[in-house]
Amino acid sequence: MPIELQAGATRCLVLPAVGGAVAGLWWHGVPVLRCTPWADIASPRQSGAFSLLPYSNRIGHGRLHWNGTVHTLQGPAGDAPHTIHGVGWQRPWQVIYQTPDQLHMRLQHAGDAAWPFAFEAVQQLQLHADGLAWSLALRNQAAQTVPAGVGWHPYFVKRPGAQLRFSANRQWQAQADCLPTVPLPWQHSGEAIACAAWQTDHCFDGWDGCADLHDESLQIRLQSNLSRLAVFTAPQLPFVALEPVSHVHNALQLVADGRLPAPGMAVLAPGETLSGAARMHIQF
User: Fold this and answer.
1) pTM of this prediction?
2) Which of 138, 165, 155, 196 has the alpha carbon at shortest distance from 33?
3) Distance between CA atoms of residues 13 and 238, nearest Å
4) Helix ranges, the chain (H)
5) Using CA atoms, how far apart are residues 234 and 240, in angstroms rounded to an integer?
C-alpha cells in the first residue's frame, strides 16, 4: 500500500515496498512527476522517481574491477549485457519515520551477487508547499574500502511547450551500447532546449546544480548538491528524466585501473558515508 504525504497543495504517494519509489507527485492537482496508478507499478522504473545506489546508470557488462578482484554483477532481467542503477530500486525499504509531510526509509544491504559490499542507506522525502526535497545517505558497512555513488531518478511530465535550461561543461555521450567513451564540450550550456523533439540519454559533467523545466502549466526548478546531471528523453516519451548524480555513467570502467577514483566515483573507507540531496521548487 502507498503512503500519502501532503504539504499545502503538494501531494505525493510513496511505495516503500517497491524500491522506495515515488508513485506520483502533484501540485495543485497538476502532475509534476509521471503518475502511474500505484497498483500498476510492478517496478520503480514505471514510477515517478526512485533513488540510485550504490551507483547510477550502467556498469559495462556487469564487470566490477575493484582492489584486484573482478566481480561479475547480477543485474535485473532484461537489462543485459549491463547492470543498471545499483540495487536500491530493486529492494523494499523499511519506514523508520513518518509525519504528514515527511518520510524516512532505510535499506540494509548485506552484500550479494548484485553488489558484493554491505551498506546501509537512509532516504528522506520532505514535502513543501512549493515542492519536494529528497536526500540520501549511504554508509559503507564492508570491512574494506569500496566504490560508491548516489543519485535520484525523477521522471518529470513532458507537456506541450516544455523547455529545459541547464549549464554544464561536458557531455559524456553514450554510444550504441549505452556506454560513454570520452567527454565532449557541451555546446548548449545555459540555452533553452525544446524537449518535444530532443533525444538524449547522456550524462553532463560540471553541472552547476540547477535545472529549469518550463511548460504551459508549470515552472519547475531542480537544484542539487551533486555535480552531474543525467538527462533521458526522446520525442516518443512522455517524460523528461532529470537525474542529479554523483558520478558519470560507467565511471568505474572509464579509468584503466579500477582501483583508482573514477570521474566522480567516491571511495568510502569502512564506516564512511556518501550523501546527496535535491530540491524541486514549483510555481505557475
Assistant:
1) 0.96
2) 155
3) 20
4) none
5) 8
